Amino acid sequence: MSGRFDRQSFLGADSEELLAGLRVAIVGYGGGGSHFGQQLAHIGVGEILVFDDDIVEETNLNRLVGGVSADVAAITPKVTVADRVISGVNPAARVRQFGCKWSEAAEELAGAHVVLGAVDSFAERLNLERFCRRFLLPYIDIGMDVIQRSEGYEIVGQVILSSPEHQCLRCMGLINDAVLEKEERARQYGDAGSKPQVIWPNGVLASTAVGLLIQLITPWQPLPAAAVHLEYNGNTSTLQPAPRLAYMLEHGHGCSHYPRDEVGDALFGAPLF
Ligand SMILES: [Zn+2]
């Protein structure tokens, strides 16, 4: 092994080669996704596809890893920040920038080995998961929210591994029709934007997600299950397995939301949503 990865050789004798041969997509390069980029670069992932159609704004700089003040004036795309961070750490990594919506470069996304998602809405999560199911891609999702209660603010979040043919975001209860309708109503009335965000929960969630990715790829430690749902409480700084998925796993309840015949390239080119 070369010196760079000596300290992580415990991940497995072939881990350096495994990671160098890995093609990971990051969808959404904001407060969560930028942690992904930084960590994938350090750990030695060979090819990283970054999807984000946004530019760096002043309001991003409280949490966008690698974003700098000059990016605001320069109207720098977030995918450029990704390339700068990743290539700066690991020049051997191949960074592919997609400054568009992921659905506009879907063919490229389908070629990833694993998809990491840090997107803004439940509707977007659902679409992304549906796409990943169709192409048999493991999807790792993170998200956080700040909820105002009468007694103060509560930071909540999730890290989810959604594997083909296993429990999905709907199974886990993260997404249901009521959540989607509420989100859509908020969007229509114009109060969906500017959700509170802060750097450290994103860091916790993204780091945990990268840990799951490494468990998925390398032999150092098996995943607890093919489906994982960890709930984050930012007020107590804890991550706990979600009871609902634990119950499903324990009782052998599988996913009924994605029929097996809705898989594969045959549907490519059909309307996604
Ligand atoms: Zn399901």
Summarize the entry for a quick read.
The protein has 273 residues and is an alpha/beta fold. Helix content is 34%, strand content 19%.
Shape label: globular
How would a textbook summarize the main sheet? 8 strands, mixed
Compressed to H and E, one letter per element, the order equals: HEHEHHEHEHEEHHEEH
The fourth-level CATH homologous superfamily is: NAD(P)-binding Rossmann-like Domain
Spell out which ligands are present. zinc ion
**CATH topology term:** Rossmann fold
Number of domains: 1
- Residue-averaged pLDDT, rounded? 94
Proportion of strand residues: 15-25%
Characterise the protein shown here.
By secondary structure, the chain is an alpha/beta fold. The chain has a single domain (3-254), classed as 3-Layer(aba) Sandwich (Rossmann fold). Helices cover 34% and strands 19% of the residues. The chain is built from 9 helices and 8 strands. β7 (228-233) and β8 (238-241) form a beta hairpin. α2 packs parallel to α4 (78-89) and α2 crosses α8 (199-217). The longest helix has 19 residues, at 199-217. It is globular, with a radius of gyration of 18 Å. Residues 266-273 have low confidence and may be disordered. Zinc ion (ZN) is lined by residues 167-168, 170-171, 255, 257.
Q: Main attributes?
A:
single chain, 273 residues, Rossmann fold, 9 helices, disordered C terminus
Topology:
Layout: H1 15-20, E1 23-27, H2 33-43, E2 47-51, H3 69-73, H4 78-89, E3 94-98, H5 106-110, E4 114-117, H6 122-134, E5 139-149, E6 152-162, H7 177-188, H8 199-217, E7 228-233, E8 238-241, H9 243-251
Parallel strand pairs: 1-2, 1-4, 2-3, 4-5
Antiparallel strand pairs: 5-6, 6-7, 7-8
Helix pairs in contact: 2-4, 2-8
